[in-house]
Q: What sequence folds into this?
């Protein structure tokens, strides 16, 4: 059974998600996430024998259009509204550091 989620785990998850959290938020999130995990534990106690697995409560089907050959977009047109570009490519901020990847 899951007991209280500690603040170190919350800080670790926040770091992985690249979130900046205050000490007050860490304490509050630890309590809230512990309650969520406790609820999930309660759900695990339900008898689901004979209940077919479902991915969605309602029937869902994809509506796809025919794949048609069209005119390709030119590089200049694709980069026209890009806030930053370099050597014909989109320039974006670095997301992962080599040390943390």
A:
């Amino acid at each position: 059974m899951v007991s209280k989620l500690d603040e170190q785990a919350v800080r670790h998850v926040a770091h992985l998600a690249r979130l900046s959290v205050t000490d007050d938020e860490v304490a509050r999130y630890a309590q809230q996430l512990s309650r969520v995990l406790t609820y999930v534990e309660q759900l695990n106690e339900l008898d689901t024998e004979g209940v077919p697995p479902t991915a969605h409560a309602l029937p869902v089907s994809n509506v796809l259009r025919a794949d048609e050959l069209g005119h390709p977009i030119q590089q200049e047109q694709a980069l026209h509204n890009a806030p930053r570009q370099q050597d014909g490519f989109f320039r974006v901020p670095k997301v992962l550091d080599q040390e943390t990847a």
